[in-house]
Amino acid sequence: MVLPDGVVGVLLAGGRSSRMGGGDKCLRKLGGRTILARTINRLRSQVSDIVINANGDASRFATFGVPVVPDSIVGYAGPLAGVHAGLEWVKANRPDAVHVVTMATDTPFFPTDLVRRLLQASNDRSALRIAKSDAGTHYVIGLWPVALADALKVSLERGERKVGAWTKAHGAIEVFFPPVDVAGQSTDPFFNINAPDDLAAAEALVREKSL
Fold it and tell me: How far apart are CA 70 and CA 14, in angstroms?
């Protein structure tokens, strides 16, 4: 489905996953499918295109059939560099797109109407919107106007690395998402899998729900 604003999904898969023992956390299995496959499936109907931001050998994501975009900023610059890479890809490949929605790849229960609700949060198409829940503000989950690409590049080249600080400085609107029901349990919509215990908890929910 092509949304009116031509929103492109950018999956941020460039983290070091230190608490999971390293490697690509999103390629770990959850209920028999990789976390990344679940994320792509959940986001696909909400956006016009999906790209993965990741560094290193892109072939490890070949089976997912979507473009893999590395950081253009030298050195490990964190998720802000991933957002920038996604914005630059959209400028070059989908010039009519207005927004990019960024999503962590360790958040398997995010809302299926995430993009719609972020879009509806403001009539100002130039407004940056960031997801929030009872657990706090999720700075890497948001709707970014493509027009911010140049400003973000300048900030990265100056050494800016903190997503929260950058989004606040650019007037981000926080959009609240209430808990969701997963297998009869009230669950944060942005429950993320950071450590083995989190993966076990998500596995129990998926097994109960048969998701």
Answer: 8
The domain 8-209 belongs to what CATH superfamily? Spore Coat Polysaccharide Biosynthesis Protein SpsA; Chain A (3.90.550.10)
What does the domain layout of the chain look like in residue ranges? 8-209
Separation between Cα atoms, residue 20 and residue 141, nearest integer Å: 21
- Which residues make Cβ contacts (< 8 Å) with residue 118, sequence separation at least 6? 101, 129, 131, 142, 143, 175
Taking residues 175-195, report their average pLDDT. 93
What are 193-206's pLDDT values in tens digits? 989 999 999 999 98
Is the distance from CB of 102 to CB of 95 less than 8 angstroms? Answer: no
CA angle, corner 131, sides to 129 and 134, nearest 5?
145
What predicted TM-score, i.e. pTM, was given to this entire model? 0.92
Q: What is the pLDDT of residues 43-100, one digit of tens each?
A: 999 999 999 999 999 999 999 999 999 998 887 789 999 999 999 999 999 999 999 9
- Cα separation, 188 vs 193, in Å, equals 12
Pick from 72, 52, 48: nearest CA to 61: 52
